[in-house]
Amino acid sequence: MNKRLKIASLLFYAVCAAGMCIGAVYLLTQKMLPYHEKFLGITQEQVSARWLQLLFASYRIMGSLIIALGIASIMLIKQPLMKGENWARWAVMIILLIPQLTVLFMMLHNGMYGLCLIIGLLIALVFMAFYLSKATRVIEQKL
Question: pTM of the predicted model, to two decimals?
Answer without folding.
Answer: 0.86
